[in-house]
Structure formats: structure tokens, C-alpha cells
TrEMBL record:
Gene Ontology molecular-function annotations: proton-transporting ATP synthase activity, rotational mechanism
Record field: transmembrane: 32-49
Any one annotated GO CC term: proton-transporting ATP synthase complex
Subunit and interaction comment: F-type ATPases have 2 components, F(1) - the catalytic core - and F(0) - the membrane proton channel. F(1) has five subunits: alpha(3), beta(3), gamma(1), delta(1), epsilon(1). F(0) has four main subunits: a(1), b(1), b'(1) and c(10-14). The alpha and beta chains form an alternating ring which encloses part of the gamma chain. F(1) is attached to F(0) by a central stalk formed by the gamma and epsilon chains, while a peripheral stalk is formed by the delta, b and b' chains.
Subcellular location per the Swiss-Prot or TrEMBL entry: Membrane; Plastid, Chloroplast thylakoid membrane
Membrane association type: Single-pass membrane protein
Protein name (record): ATP synthase subunit b, chloroplastic
Entry coiled-coil feature ranges: 71-98
Keywords attached to this entry: ATP synthesis, CF(0), Chloroplast, Coiled coil, Hydrogen ion transport, Ion transport, Membrane, Plastid, Thylakoid, Transmembrane, Transmembrane helix, Transport
Annotated family: Belongs to the ATPase B chain family.
Originating gene: atpF
Amino acid sequence: MKNVTDSFVSLGHWPSAGSFGFNTDILATNPINLSVVLGVLIFFGKGVLSDLLDNRKQRILTTIRNSDELREGAIDQLDKARARLRKVEMEADQFRVNGYSEIEREKLNLINSTYKTLEQLENYKNETIHFEQERAINQVRQRVFQQALQRALGTLNSCLNNELHLRTISANIGMFGAMKEITD
């Protein structure tokens, strides 16, 4: 330790230029310098430091207030968004229910329409069959009647004389005309 102090002491023996010199006694100079510097800093820096801390405190408080306002705004927006979501979900459920019921209604309408169409086709088929049967029966009747009439005429022609033949023909023509009016 003596070597460290001797080196500082030897610095004190340097020749000084005029009245300016170095005080190498560390223990005597540092506390005085420190107390002077601290005193000046406290005296002059007290206001500046106070202003800096007040400004910082105001910025922090403003930031906290702004963040609280933003948080409250975000909470309000979140509540509104949740309300809209609930409303949209309810509308979607309603559309889904209405869609399913509309599909069921359309399905029933299609089934009923198909049954009606099948019934109409069945009725049309039955009417067509009945009409064709009636037409076939009328054709058979006409042929049977024509054949019977031709046989009767043939029999009459062979058995009758001319005068009786002419009266029979006239009577048959009259009956045939009356029958034709009835069938038309």
C-alpha cells in the first residue's frame, strides 16, 4: 500500500507552472469536490429534475387514461360485436329452420303434385281404354248389323218377288235410317 501512496505523493513534486498545481491528496480533495458538485446539482438541478419527473408522471398518467379509454372502447365494441353475433346466429338458425321447413313443404308439394299427375294419367288411360272399347264395340255392332242385313237381304231376294222385294227394301231402309239416328 505504501507503493501506491508513494506514487501519488511523487506526483506532487512535479514542478508547477505558476500558481496552478495538482493536489494529489485523494482523501482530502474528493469529498470536498463531491460535496460541491452534489450541492450545485441539488441546488440547480432540483427544479429541472422535478420538472422532468412531473412531465414523465403526466405522460404516464395520460397514457394510462388513454389506455383505459381504449380498453373501455374495445370492451364496448366487443359487447356490440357479441350482440351482433348472437343476432346473426339467431337469424341463421331461423333461416336454417325455415329452409328445412321450406324444403319439407316443397317435398310434400312435389309428392302431392306427382300423385295428382299420376291420377290424371291413370284417369286419361282409363278414359282412352273405355273410348277405344266403345269404338271397337260400335265397329263390331256395325259389322254384325251389316252382315245380318246382307244375309237378310240375300234371303229376301231369293224368297221374294219384285213387288214384295221393293216393299221390304223400303221398310228396311226406313228402319235403318231410324236406327242410325238413334246411334248418332
